[in-house]
Amino acid sequence: MAPAMSAAPGMPPLNPAAAVSIRGLYKRFGDKVAVNGLSMDIPVGSFYGLVGPNGAGKTTSLNMLTGLLKPDGGSAMVLGQEVWANVNQVKQAIGVMPQTDQIFDRLTGMQLLIYAGMLRGMKRPEAMRRATDLLAAFDLAQAANKMVADYSAGMTKKICLAAAMIHSPRLLVLDEPFESVDPVSSANLKDILVEYASTGGTVIISSHVMALVEKMCTHVAVISDGQVKAAGTVAQVANGEDLEDRFLQLVGGRHSAAHLSWLNGGGAGQSGNCGQGPVPQTTAPAMPQTPTLAPHPAGDSAGFGEPR
User: Fold this and answer.
1) Has residue 288 been placed in a domain?
2) Which InterPro entries does the UniProt record give (predicted)?
3) What domain count does the chain have?
4) pLDDT at 183
5) Which end of the chain is more exposed for a tag (fewer CB within 10 A), N or C?
6) Is the residue at 261 inside a domain?
């Protein structure tokens, strides 16, 4: 059994009552610090959104708290168990949506879900029953016997989410679950996840879509440069402002487009000359007259007809 990693000195202890408790998580890849002292508590039964710009450390943080990636420092507790001291038990209690390039896509949708259930220790009949229910819930019943490799991007995303849910985990961890999903399927997924959270399950999602997070989530953490810039309920983090405006205040990086003054959408006098100023008026040179070709008389050998 791997030894537990302790939190950094001076930090409060891990909170065993939280669904997820993180203290001082740190991860470096070469010269790049991906996560730099991340700390937060995620309440049981919450719908928790992790938001941040690309490269902020969201996916790396999720991989560490789910036992997929070992941190270089700090500690994480999931449902009262320290992750790296009890990694197998932690993995059994959570559902992680796999990336679409990490699944066995030569299986059919039904086969993939049965495999996912049996991998979690379920008997085949129960795995098959739950797979049937999930395929119906995700509007994939008609594609149950179709290879996942032939699914659309949105269908593949849905089968990955179904695979994460088949063993009825207490915690769902979903990295960009609504990416490439059509609006109708997205609404159905939201309903399923909200219902799951209402029964006491905890959902953690990462997303770039502020409107979705503001509408669905009860809590949110804004992450930038591998650190938590703000965390709490959505109302607390928004602080009376639109969540997207608040996000931009916290992470920065918004630039004026004034230096693109040449980008004018083809305004008057600019069309077709790459913004080099008004197009000069020129007179096209006269073209030489083309002689009129009279038809050849019948039987003329210069013509292409047969002589009469």
Assistant:
1) no
2) AAA+_ATPase, ABC_transporter-like_ATP-bd, ABC_transporter_ATP-binding, P-loop_NTPase
3) 1
4) 85
5) C
6) no
